[in-house]
Predict the structure.
Amino acid sequence: MNHPYAYEEKRYEIHVPGMRQGTRFRLAFLSDLHNCAYDEIIRRLEKAKPDAVLCGGDIANCPKFPLLPSWSTALSFYAALAGKYPVYAVPGNHEARWREAKDPKLRASYEDFHAQLQEFGAVLLENRIVTLEAGGICLNLAGLDPDRRVYRVRTRGRRVFQDGEIERLLGKKPEGFTVLLAHTPNPAADYAAWGADLVLSGHLHGGIVRLPKLGGLVGPGLQLLPPYTKGKYVIGTTALIVGAGLGEHSIPVRIGNPRHIVYVDLIPRESKE
């Protein structure tokens, strides 16, 4: 399936200490597909040849009571991805609402979706950390799955998590370079305080409407001028990269805001010096 909205592919380089000279580890980051699947994404990934595909949440849409959600499109897309690349994913606010629904039928349907996603080979990082080999180093990949209240907080740089909360969910930040997958970028100060070297987030859909100089205009919950909508930001020693997403749901428009595929090349720190 294809769609008339344009695509944008953005590449970033992040220097990682200890990586073997002449190596590169490419991460492709996709977010907010909302039960959409586009052949164009697969074609572009095949050209980019990522070493791993990271998925930043909202794979499918949460159900609207009393209807059960449709997620066959999302599953078929992730099955295709996992057949070609190592795939790591975190839940987003839509999965959290679905998982925590009051209706037991909805919760059961989420468990079915969750199980099938893993059967296809996707690794779900729900408050856990895995280690990958990348250019001769052990690369830590952490996935954060917080309480739903985190998504309801509107913040402009304020702390969102309680003291020590991320550490209770994930443990202490491990030794070595650590990439944190976290659906919402709003608590960037908390991610930096935990010690993440690189954070990959989505959730804001690029601000839906993007204007020159102003950037994204609106976020979920009709938050005006959210602070992190698209691109790279630096908070202390932490790099935050926010993808503008690939799908839509309740506001099915994009203005000045193409579908966004992010590539992050992890390269040796000394290679550019």
